[in-house]
Amino acid sequence: MTQYAFRLLNVFAEATFGGNPLCVFEDARGMDDATMQALALQFNLSETTFVLPSDVADAHVRIFTPGYEMRFAGHPTLGTAHVVRDIAGTGDSLSLEFKAGVVPVTAQADIWTFTAPHSGAPKTAPAGLADADIASLVGLKADDLVGAPIWVDTGADQLLIAVNSVDAVRRAVPDNARMAMWPQSSLGRKTAYVFAFDPSRDGQVVARYFFTMQGGGVAEDPGTGSACANLGGWLLARGHALPAAYRIDQGEAVNRPCRLRLSVQADGAIEVGGRVIEIGRGVVTV
């Protein structure tokens, strides 16, 4: 029997019980893939990360959902960096190796920022369905949309649906009965990032992220760093003036308010940040 230490954190949190929960295993040496997958299912959070040695970064990080491994994800990057700084004494600037590449991460106190693992123009692709069909799949109408929904990939591909009002974001309700119609990502996931720029608050975006669950149904993620990075890719694809900076509010509908910080630099670098709060530690015996 082997003991493995873990930490529980909330990422993009402005208060103790806000943010997106994350479990981080401090040292996963000796674990095989099946054990990592089983532990991710045991904790049943959107993601669980496992820290390993790296030859090219301060740590090698593997990310598992309850059902599969991911190449990259946003809130696991920031939460894991918070743990690596503490256990490895790296200071406020470090790098993490993921399957998607090496990602630099920096901190100002407990506010962490990663640079998305993309170079050049972001990868984009058509949604694969008519605009009206995409809108109806999330309970909206075609005239709620701002342009055609598109796939954007700055580390993990997701379907971005820009809408013309905060009210439309809040009205969005995915249609569980028509899940077979949803277009799939390269990982076979069905996702929708619905967002709107808030005209009443300069530099503010309100967003929601829906994804299909194993076994059926749709869940809503409280704070999605990879989708926030893809919003940066959307801005680049739309030819938005640079540099640009936004605050993204997400998680209100699931009672886990999150605040994400997005910056797109003049050279196209996309940075996503947020506060990380550690709320507990423990040990698992396997």
How do the helices and strands line up, and which of them pair or pack?
Elements: E1 3-11, E2 20-25, H1 33-43, E3 48-52, E4 59-64, E5 69-70, H2 74-88, E6 93-98, E7 101-108, E8 111-115, E9 123-126, H3 131-137, E10 150-153, E11 158-162, H4 166-171, E12 191-197, E13 204-212, E14 218-221, H5 225-237, E15 244-250, E16 258-264, E17 270-285
Parallel strand pairs: 2-3, 4-6, 11-12, 13-15
Antiparallel strand pairs: 1-2, 1-17, 3-4, 4-5, 6-7, 7-8, 8-17, 9-10, 10-11, 12-13, 13-14, 15-16, 16-17
What this model shows, in words?
The protein is of the alpha+beta class and about 290 residues long. It has two domains: about 5-105 and about 275-285, Diaminopimelate Epimerase, Chain A, domain 1 (Roll); about 125-270, Roll (Diaminopimelate Epimerase, Chain A, domain 1), CATH 3.10.310.10. It contains five helices and 17 strands. It has helices spanning about 35-45, 75-90, 130-135, 165-170, 225-235; strands at about 5-10, 20-25, 50, 60-65, 70, 95-100, 100-110, 110-115, 125, 150-155, 160, 190-195, 205-210, 220, 245-250, 260-265, 270-285. Strands 1-2-3-4-6-7-8-17 form an eight-stranded mixed barrel. The relative contact order is 0.19.
